[in-house]
Structure formats: C-alpha cells, structure tokens
TrEMBL record:
Residues making up the signal peptide according to the UniProt record: none
Source organism phylogeny: Bacteria, Bacillati, Bacillota, Bacilli, Bacillales
InterPro entries for the chain: Transpos_IS110 (IPR047650), Transposase_20 (IPR003346)
Originating species: Sporolactobacillus shoreicorticis
Segments forming domain Transposase IS116/IS110/IS902 C-terminal: 83-168
Name of this chain's protein: Transposase
C-alpha cells in the first residue's frame, strides 16, 4: 500500500483523530518491514483467529449499542434524567449509571458529602505553616460512582467548549501530576 493510501485509510478508519497521520503511516510501514514473517502453515490459522476475534468485537459492539438503546428507552420515564441530560456530554447511559449509584440525592446533606461518598477527597498533610502539595486520595467510598463521575466529567470536557476552556486553564496551572487526557480512549 502506498503512503498516500495508508494515510487515507488511517484518516477514514480513525475518524480524522490522528494529528500526524503521515508520521503514523511511515511508522506502520517500518513496523511491517521489520516484523516477523509467518510460515505458510501458520498464515491460515492466524488469519482465522484474527477474523474470529474481529467478528466477536463487532458483535460485542452491536450488543452494547442495543443495550444503550434499551437504557435510553427505560430512562425516558425517569423525571430525574432531565437535570443530568441537560448537560452537554451526559446522555441517558451516564445518567442511569449516576442515578443507580447515588440513589436518592436528598440523603446527602451537601455536595461535600456526595464527593466524600464518591471518594473524591484527598487527605491533608500539614504541620504548622507547612502544607504538602502531594497528598493521596482517600480510598473509601463508592468506586463505581467515582468512575462514573470521572467519565462523565471527561465527556463534558469533550463536548462543552466552556468546560474545555476551564479545564485547560486549570491544567495549565498545574506544574506536576498533569493528567494526560490524550492517552485515554474516548
């Protein structure tokens, strides 16, 4: 395959998410040239195995879409969903996840109680005038709610320009421990 064809293929299959597709295409060609060649007796079993694996992935993806549609249908009757789905980036699936883990929001006296329940609080290390910058997140609380809140916040970051600008401002203020959001999958 020519470099131009490979670049076009990468852009199409990657939904134009690659910032430097030419560089990636050259790297893939270099990898292909230096890769181990299979013997003729192994090509068919390896190709069959890869074909079955890709078929399973497609099947699981179609089942996830089906499940998402059913969750969305079930959420239509829930009046609480309107508050969460009004936020750009939060759909019915995130809403269902969050509502399932939070339950009745009125059981929390404040937002501080909710974030503590989600284990999104950090311990404090201080002595006199000294306060440590490096602290550990407390490991108690609902790990599923924490996961859903973090994923929902990242989705909002991707879909809301104001939130993206705020996130970028805060990201630039941090000198250490910056989160690499580009490394994570969507």
């Amino acid at each position: 395959m020519s470099i131009e064809s490979l670049v076009a293929f990468l852009q199409e299959k990657g939904n134009h998410h690659f910032s430097e597709p030419e560089e990636i295409a050259n790297y893939l060609k270099k990898l292909a040239r230096s890769s181990y060649q299979l013997s003729k007796s192994m090509k068919d079993p390896v190709n069959l195995s890869m074909s079955v694996t890709l078929s399973l992935i497609r099947h699981i993806e179609s089942q996830l879409k089906r499940l998402d549609k059913e969750i969305s249908r079930l959420m239509q009757g829930n009046p609480q969903r309107l508050v969460l789905t009004s936020v750009k980036g939060i759909g019915d699936v995130f809403t269902a996840d969050l509502l399932a883990e939070i339950g009745d929001i009125k059981r929390f006296n404040s937002h501080h109680a909710l974030v503590k329940y989600a284990s999104l609080v950090w311990s404090q290390y201080q002595s006199g005038e000294y306060e440590s910058e490096d602290t550990k997140r407390m490991r108690t609380g609902n790990k599923y709610l924490r996961y859903y809140l973090i994923q929902a916040a990242d989705s909002i970051r991707k879909h809301d320009a104001d939130y993206q600008a705020f996130y970028q401002k805060k990201y630039n203020e941090v000198t250490r421990h910056q989160l690499n959001t580009n490394a994570r999958s969507s």
